[in-house]
Amino acid sequence: MAPAEKSRSAEDAREAAAFGARLRRLRQASGLTLKDLAERAGLAISTISKIENDRMSPTYDVLLRLAAGLAIDLSALLEGPAPAAVQSLGRLDVTRAGARLKHPTGTYVYEPFATGLTRKGMDPTFVTVTARSIDEFPALIRHPGEELVYVISGTVELHAEFYAPIRLEAGDSVYYDATMGHAYVSVGPEDATILNICCGTGGVPPVELPGAAS
Predict the structure, then answer these.
(1) What is the pLDDT of residues 77-105, one digit of tens each?
(2) Domains of the chain by range and CATH?
(3) What separation in angstroms does the CA of 107 have from each of 35, 80, 92, 174, 202?
């Protein structure tokens, strides 16, 4: 493994560990047992336990399930407790290039924007696509709402439930119903980066395809 890859793997491991500890604190602060959260989120107890103990990185749909189970905003789940009051008029949040926090999932590395705001109408995220094969996904990802993806660099292949694989180059974009199973893999020499914008998620727990790992 190249030095850069080793460094990235170590950083991803630290970020995953930080998320596991954060999830445990949020669950305990809500007075929920593993069983309680599992029932609310529609996940297996073993899945939540593995995430909290850094043995599994959550995919985007699992993050949505966890946020819904905890009754919090996705930003609060990723970055910490939400502010006590939410101001809807004239809201603004700046995300500096060097301030984005990374959340690796094994197939993607998510870097959310505007994490200082809660109850947003959309969830914009900078994503590095590290997956190289669709076989790396236990199931296609699906969640409520609609999704726009713009390819910033590299080349990706979109695997969608009702379509043949679609190759997208830098500058290309695609918009689709996110309840349709979907996943991205990098097909160029380097990991691709994309801008991912989801809207209308509404905190509703997503549904995975049959055969998804629990």
Answers:
(1) 877 554 444 556 788 999 999 988 888 88
(2) 3-79 (1.10.260.40), 97-199 (2.60.120.10)
(3) 27, 23, 31, 19, 24
